[in-house]
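Q: For a teaching handout, I want to show students what a protein-ligand complex looks like in token form. Below are the inputs, and the small molecule is zinc ion. Please produce the holo structure.
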Amino acid sequence: MPATDTVHIHLSDDRNYEIRIGSGLLNEPASWQGLPKAAAAVIVSNETVAPLYAERLRERLLAVYKRVDLVVLPDGEQHKGWESLNRICDHLLGEALDRKTVLFALGGGVIGDMTGFAAAIYMRGVPFVQVPTTLLAQVDSSVGGKTAINHPLGKNMLGAFYQPERVIADLDTLDTLPDRELRAGLAEVIKYGPIADAAFLCWIEDNLDALLSRDKAVLGYAVRRSCEIKADVVGQDEKEQGLRAILNFGHTIGHAIESGLGYGEWLHGEAVACGMVLAADLSQRMGLMPADFVERLQTLIERAGLPVKPPRLGADRYLQLMRVDKKAEAGAIRFVLIEALGQAGLHSVPDALIVETLAAHGAA
Ligand SMILES: NC(=O)c1ccc[n+]([C@@H]2O[C@H](COP(=O)([O-])OP(=O)(O)OC[C@H]3O[C@@H](n4cnc5c(N)ncnc54)[C@H](O)[C@@H]3O)[C@@H](O)[C@H]2O)c1
Ligand SMILES: O=C(O)C(=O)C[C@@H](O)[C@H](O)[C@H](O)COP(=O)(O)O
Ligand SMILES: [Zn+2]
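A: Here is the structure, written as tokens, with zinc ion included.
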């Protein structure tokens, strides 16, 4: 049996679940035992991931379920919308699959978010399991139950909070991940340092080269520590009434970049990386953090091969895009700012200061 790290996420009403992390977990029969009983399972994946891992997963699931279907969606952030969601629902309804059917999201965050949303709405809710195959999905999107699709006017604007039954993060699936996607995943790993764990930020700085060269033990620790931090935050504030917003550090500008450019041109992790640099700068301009913090974070993000210079969409366009951010209230844009290393909070920022910051970074 492969070495497995298990992180527990504690939620109200006995909805706790496990995040299992390790090499070879896809092949491990125990990964798929003890899930809700059902006649059928459906693997949802995409054109890139399905040929790599779907057959292996299907074989394992056939030991548990009489029937295992596969729905293969087109690949890409631009396909995280109604059409793909309908494809999943069309299959479930077309095959008359019952409300016990278990969905398995096999892929990155795009597949995970859409499969979770389909699970939330099909017959008002069927169980689902996250099988994340990107670094980003293993450290972030598979955990915590945010499910969604994009709308042309805003990122993740249609969705539900709906928790998976279990998360199975097989580190071996990262072997086939393109370098650009690995770096994008590192953006969300880096995020956890400034918002929640100063020591983890130092660890990332010290281990960045090993992460980039895909040292399995180092990657495993990054996944585990990230999941621990996220599980702790989500356990305290599942539906983002307050604390959970810290996980959105870098996302106010990040999401504006993604939707402003049309989904898919910048990867989510790339947009978040750049958004974190600007949010760090805003933290300084608001008098919360010293200038050397901004330099430190920017240096790390650059070392990770991630972008730090935002696209020049113009200040008005950025403001327009950010006013539909889910954290905005009564038209006021709110940012997650760093208050001390390892501590963050939600702050209203005057438009003039946002414009000044955008201009300083060549975005306006
Ligand atoms: N729900 C959440 O809490 C949460 C958190 C962070 C991000 N997200 C969402 O996640 C999405 C980004 O996720 P992502 O970065 O995983 O992108 P992604 O799902 O688009 O996957 C990235 C690319 O890698 C490919 N891929 C996946 N696994 C692979 C593997 N093992 N080998 C080779 N190729 C592989 C995919 O086909 C895709 O081309 C965004 O939509 C973002 O909004 C959600
Ligand atoms: O889990 C969360 O909460 C997060 O904010 C994690 C983010 O990395 C993620 O991109 C999330 O989907 C953004 O949430 P949204 O509510 O701003 O759409
Ligand atoms: Zn994110």
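A: Two things your students might notice: The CA atoms of residues 283 and 337 lie 5 Å apart. The pocket of nicotinamide-adenine-dinucleotide (ligand 1) is lined by residues 46, 48-49, 52, 75, 77, 80, 107-111, 113, 133-134, 136-137, 140-141, 144, 146, 156, 173, 176-177, 181, 184, 268-269 (CB under 6 Å).
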